[in-house]
Amino acid sequence: MVKITFVEHDGSRTEVDAPVGQSLMRAATYGEVPGISADCGGNCACGTCRVYVPEQWRSCFANPSSSEKDMIDYWNDQTDGVRLACQTKVNEAMDGMILNLPEDQHY
Ligand code: FES
Fold it and tell me: Could you state one GO biological process linked to this protein (predicted)?
């Protein structure tokens, strides 16, 4: 298990205990993070699992696939460090990671 904190646009925070190997999106939804609705269930088809990864944590992520890039482009989200949580698995290097969430994912 690693601890990951999700920070909503309004500053509210949810800390989750995420099993290594689980989808980062699943860790967020099982942890009841309000700003990750993940409407497509992790099929890289909705973009409602976007997270903003601060620079110091980006090395925990593999390079995005072309389908992840396409979905991020669809949203035209120019924010630095934007990734789709459903396309990344939790790994041990993520322990203590803090991720920010887009304003349009604040429900
Ligand atoms: S859950 Fe739909 S793109 Fe990630």
Answer: P450-containing electron transport chain
Lowest mean pLDDT among 13-17, 43-47, 56-60, 76-80: 76-80
Q: Are the C-beta atoms of residues 23 and 88 closer than 8 Å to each other?
A: yes
Return the CATH number of the domain spanning residue range 2-105. 3.10.20.30
CB 6 within 8 A of CB 51: yes
| Beta-sheet strand order (sheet of 13-18) | 13-18, 2-7, 97-100, 50-52, 82-84
Residues with beta carbon inside 6 Å of ligand 1? Answer: 25, 38-40, 42-49, 71, 84, 86
Q: How far is the CA of 70 from the centre of ligand 1 (A)?
A: 12
Where do the DSSP E strands lie in 1-107?
2-7, 13-18, 50-52, 82-84, 97-100
Domain ranges in the chain?
2-105
